[in-house]
Amino acid sequence: MFKHTSRVPRPERLAGSPVVRRGDQWWLVTGAGSILATDPTFTGELDRFAAAMAAADREVARLLTKCAAARTGVR
User: How far apart are CA 20 and CA 34, in angstroms?
Assistant: First the structure.
């Protein structure tokens, strides 16, 4: 039996949407299959949204760390 040993992360859906980034390409994914998104305006918006989501995730993590430190008295 083949054992998958690759450390390449599996693509994740963008904020629960049917959109997945694979490498430098955006794909629309459904149970019936996938289609490459090629419209530069659309993919540009996806890039901007993904960047905004990543920034928001980083800020939430920073705030959680700050709150946890405040509760324990660590600075």
Answer: 9
Residue the block writes with tokens 């430098």: 24
Q: Is the dihedral of CA 40, 29, 54, 4 positive or negative?
A: negative
Residue 14's contacts (CB-CB under 8 Å, 6 or more residues apart) are 20, 21, 46, 49, 50, 53
pTM exceeds 0.90: no
Please, what are the averages of pLDDT over each run of 10 residues along the chain (75 residues)?
A: 41 84 92 94 95 93 91 74
Phi-psi region of 31 (alpha: psi -120 to 50; beta: other; left: phi over 0): alpha
What are the structure tokens assigned to 57, written together? Answer: 């995730």
